[in-house]
Amino acid sequence: MKYKRLTKEQFESLHAEFANFLATQSIDKKEWDEIKADKPQVAEQELDIFSDLIWDGVLNNTQFLEHFSKNHIFLFHSQETLIQSIVLKSLVPEIDLMTVEGLQWLSDNMFTDNVEIHLGKKEYEEERNAAIFNLITQGAILSDGQLYIQINGVIQR
Questions:
Q1: CA dist list (Å): 129 to 30, 80, 109, 114, 153
Q2: Looking at the DSSP assignment, which residues form a beta bridge with residue 141?
Q3: Among 73, 93, 94, CA closest to 147
Q4: Mutual orientation of helices 128-137 and 40-60 as an angle, nearest 10°?
Q5: What percent of the chain has pLDDT over 90?
Q6: 67 Cβ partners below 8 Å, 6+ apart?
Q7: Which of 71, 99, 103, 100 shows the shortest CA–CA distance to 87?
Q8: Hey, what long-range contacts does 53-57 have (CB within 8 A, 24 or more apart)?
Q9: How far is CA 124 from CA 82, 116, 140, in A?
Q10: Predicted pLDDT of residue 156
Q11: 62-103 pLDDT per residue, tens
Q12: What number of other Cβ atoms are within 10 A of residue 110's Cβ?
């Protein structure tokens, strides 16, 4: 596998897509039930292949990711050959950037000595989708990019 197998809940939500995936291989429900019963290793392989296809589709379309922790916010803009980052760090330990109050504090203190802002840019050391998947496994979530765009716009002024 290139990535990781989808969860049971993810498979359930992608039931129609999985059925179409099996249909492209001329596997109907009856045959799928037989494969699961008689050849569980083949069924496992099919689940893995489908999972990788879904992950590839998601990762191909990913442009922005975010990762929040108590004192840091990591914002990523994934491009074709490189990834750009904005890292916001609160230098006030009691501020929790994972709360609404913490985000308001950040907004009020963005350009003070209480917040460090680091900009980064890095070419992928591995295949693009693998690099993005690695960020996801470390806790990043897919984003619409509004926060990255908003903060980048303010910083670039």
A1: 35, 10, 35, 35, 26
A2: 66
A3: 73
A4: 100
A5: 94
A6: 73, 74, 76, 135, 138, 139, 140, 141
A7: 71
A8: 53/21, 54/6, 54/10, 54/14, 54/17, 55/2, 55/3, 55/4, 55/6, 55/129, 55/133, 56/2, 56/129
A9: 5, 25, 17
A10: 78
A11: 999 999 999 999 999 999 999 999 999 999 999 999 999 999
A12: 14
- Nearest-angstrom CA–CA distance, 10 and 115: 38
Q: How far apart are CA 66 and CA 58, in angstroms?
A: 15
Decide if 76 contacts 148 (C-beta within 8 A).
yes
**Rounded distance between C-alpha atoms, residue 22 and residue 3, angstroms:** 20
**Model pLDDT for residues 127-142, shown as the tens digit of each residue:** 999 999 999 999 999 9
β-pairing verdict for 141-143 and 72-78: unpaired
DSSP 7-26: PHHHHHHTHHHHHHHHHHTT
Q: Structure tokens of 150?
A: 């908003």
CA 16 distance to own-chain centroid: 23
